[in-house]
Specification:
Mean pLDDT: 85
Number of helices: 5
Radius of gyration: 18 Å
Strand content: under 5%
Number of strands: 0
Distance between the termini: 60 Å
CATH superfamily: Fumarate reductase/succinate dehydrogenase, transmembrane subunit
Helix content: over 70%
Structural class: mainly alpha
Shape: elongated
Number of domains: 1
CATH topology: 3 helical TM bundles of succinate and fumarate reductases
CATH class: Mainly Alpha
Largest sheet: none
């Protein structure tokens, strides 16, 4: 009985593990983000101040980590919900491929939005 329960769930161990890892990355990244913006007085919230902050390697790493972890965490969560509703076989492969394409598209869009500060 226990073996049947384990093999019936098709989410996979690695997506499960990465869901937990990205949750920790999101919590830590958001804590750093909120600490830097609201606890440490880095200046008023305006375009020039944000631009100065984004030129630093530290904040760029935090932003890219939040972008990647947030996308993976959200899309993997959506994947798990849809798998619970019966995506099996070819539909599961199409679901995985579609979510990877959507995730990579949004990641590229996020990198494009931050590109002016990468090249500054």
């Amino acid at each position: 009985m226990r073996q049947e329960t384990i093999t019936e769930h098709e989410g996979g161990m690695w997506p499960w593990l990465f869901q937990r890892i990205t949750a920790v990355v999101l919590i830590l990244g958001l804590a750093v983000h909120l600490f830097a913006l609201h606890i440490v007085d880095l200046g008023s919230l305006n375009y020039a101040n944000v631009a100065d902050r984004l030129t630093s390697v530290f904040f760029m790493v935090v932003d890219f980590s939040l972008l990647a972890a947030g996308l993976f965490h959200a899309l993997n969560g959506l994947r798990m919900v849809l798998l619970d509703y019966g995506f099996r076989g070819g539909r599961r492969v199409a679901l995985n491929a579609g979510l990877w394409v959507v995730g990579l598209g949004f990641f590229v869009y996020g990198v494009w939005a931050l590109w002016p500060w990468l090249t500054a």
